[in-house]
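User: What would this chain look like folded?
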Amino acid sequence: MIPKENLSPPEPINEYELKVLRRIAEYQFISSSVASCLFPSDREFYVQRSVNTGKIRNVLTPDGILYLVLRAQDLLFSLQEASAKVILKCTNPPALRVVIPSSVKSFVMEGRSVFAKFVMDVDPKLRAGDEVVVVDENDALVAVGKMRVSGEEVKQYKRGVAVNVRRGAKDFD
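Assistant: Here's the prediction, encoded as structure tokens.
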């Protein structure tokens, strides 16, 4: 993540930028309904920009909670706790999810990777490199991360890392 001294103070987002962010979400999550859930027109958002380039780096809620990070290298979002919760509310399982058993939940909550042999269910549309929400059997948020292999491959593999966890639920507090 970018050090805070390289970011501008939060400022309200304008309508054009909101449309751009909604289009990025639509492209990334292959769903206009997910994009509309993440960026509803009746909700206010703030952005932090890079002081060097002026480009958007962070999207924040009105109360200053980090909502999404716009990665500079590929201009796609990295999920955070707040945005993962929105995705869980507006999609049906297993969309954009990797389901793990309760027996490994505590390890993943600490930020450890999800191994393919522990995946109970996965969205078959997920591709390697996609942002994903890791949940338990009760659809409770456990972590957010990035797929290492596609959803179809995870179902077939018995070894190897399925998801690189970026933040476990213990990091959210």
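The longest helix spans residues 15-29. If you want, I can go into more detail on any region.
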